[in-house]
Amino acid sequence: MIRRLLRYSSSRARRLLLAELGFIVATAVLQGVAFVMLVPLLRALFLEDMAAVRSWLIALTAVGAAYAVAFWFASQIGMKASTAVLSSLLERLGDRLVELPMAWFGTDRSGLIADIATRGAMFVSSTPYSTVRLILTGFITPGTVLVGMVFLDWRLAVAMAATVPVMWFAFRWLRTSMERDDVEHAASVAEASNRVIEFARVQPALRMAGTHSVADRLVEDALQHQHRAYRGLLITGGAGIATFAGVVQLALTVIIVLGAYLAVGGSLEPATLIALLVLGVRFTEPISNSGALGGGVAVATTTLNQLDDLSAVTALPEPTTRGTPADWGIAFDDVTFGYGGDPVLRHLSFTAPAGRMTAIVGPSGSGKTTIIKLMARLYDPERGSVSIGGVAAPQLGTDVVEAAVAPVFQDVYLFDDTILNNVWIGNPDLDREQVIAAATRARVDEIVARLPQGWNTRVGEGGSNLSGGERQRVSIARALLKDAPIILLDEATAALDIGNEIALSDALDALRSDRTMIVVAHRLSTIMTADQILMLDGNGGIQEAGTHAELLAAGGAYAHYWRERVDATGWQLAPHD
């Protein structure tokens, strides 16, 4: 476990951790030496050899002082090491999360990540001092005692040594059993966390569904599963610890019986026997205590296994030498892609010219949002390539693509911070006045004017204090602030009223002159002004492509789509006679 922990630690954390382990080993050895020295000291007391008593007391005092110094250093360094290891684990976790492909987040992982970042990381960081220290002491101290016993009475030393493999196998069995059960417990905790978070987020929908909804049942089932898993962990731990303690006590019994036999036979002095039995107790006591700590190592191992699983996830490939795009046009070449199942896009090829606006329309589920996600390199296609300026996205690298693209997705998430800071995320290098100017262009100032704390109003988790249209305006303001050469809009104006849509359209029109814009929209006013329209066929391909006038003149699928939208927006109630 320590080797794996060192792998996830920073250079400073590794130095502190190794120093801590060095002092822990020193304290364990010194403790064992002190126990061994008790034998000649007790024998001298029984024989009333006061000169020998004084000599051994002086030596024992010196060893005790050295032990106190080593223990103090181990404690001080241990606290610093725990803090450094915790910081390292959280930094590695955060760095890894931003490297993972979006496909990994296809299922809800919030419970798993929350468990690693809280319970798991805290437990692992404290394990070297709180658990490993005691386990090392529980085996190194008896090992030192065993070596000393060889010089005192080799027969009892052999008896002690014979019990070591039995105790070791019992300890391993205990640790393996608890590690297996803790894996199930950790999975149940993650699932329960997911359900509770989901339950809290979707309260409006749940309250409309009434009592005894499916969400209530899912939360209850997840919590019951967690309780069963925890109960199983406690039962396994209790039975294992009791078994291990029994094995240790059996070893002590062997030593006592053998010692008594030797004393009765006359080959061992009673004074020496009493001293050696005291030493035998000190041999088994640390081992017995370490059994209860084996489960702690198992719990820490589960978290390290979870971190290993994260490290094993294949990230999107990054180039060793980055290409340079000729312009900011986007091209799809024979792209096929699905979310781990049937393809959503099949052999899709098209070009979105640089500095022009391309609108993507089509039936629900035809892959419009998927195209936007591939352009933003949230995913790489399973087949074919997505390129910017003639360079495939993997050859540009994620950083270059992210800097070049300003996406506004249909599902907007805002951080639980102020409105101003949620816009500022778009470009943290700008000053407050520039941020407010960009937000004003997206009509966020109208939202702010209605709120008592203005720009400093907190939006709540996910932006829950704002309406859907207001959240979209904040998201659009981020994109305007980023000032990227490529703007991706996925139903960005769907939740806006007509007045704000017109205002926003004016702001976007000002950007069209020198930016590549990809727009997924159903608004007629947005579609008809595009330089190019792609009509998807619902089977992962393109049915028609051209300008608004060209496609209407063709009288095909787009013309039918357009007439349906016009009829839908133009209906009215007939006057009642």
TrEMBL record:
The protein's GO terms of the molecular function aspect are: ABC-type transporter activity; ATP binding; ATP hydrolysis activity; ATPase-coupled lipid transmembrane transporter activity
Query: Where is the protein found, in the record's own terms?
Result: Cell inner membrane
> What topology does the record note for this protein and the membrane?
Multi-pass membrane protein
Specify the domain of life of the species encoding this protein. Answer: Bacteria
Query: Boundaries of each ABC transporter domain copy?
Result: 330-564
Span-the-membrane segments of this chain are 21-42, 54-74, 132-151, 157-174, 233-264
Keyword annotations for this protein?
ATP-binding, Cell inner membrane, Cell membrane, Membrane, Nucleotide-binding, Transmembrane, Transmembrane helix, Transport
Location of the ABC transmembrane type-1 domain: 21-293
Q: Which InterPro entries does UniProt cross-reference here?
A: AAA+_ATPase, ABC1_TM_dom, ABC1_TM_sf, ABC_transporter-like_ATP-bd, ABC_transporter-like_CS, P-loop_NTPase, Type_1_exporter
Q: Which GO terms describe its cellular component?
A: plasma membrane
Please give the chief subcellular localization of this protein.
membrane
Give the family per the record: Belongs to the ABC transporter superfamily. Siderophore-Fe(3+) uptake transporter (SIUT) (TC 3.A.1.21) family.
Name by which UniProt lists this protein: ABC transporter ATP-binding protein
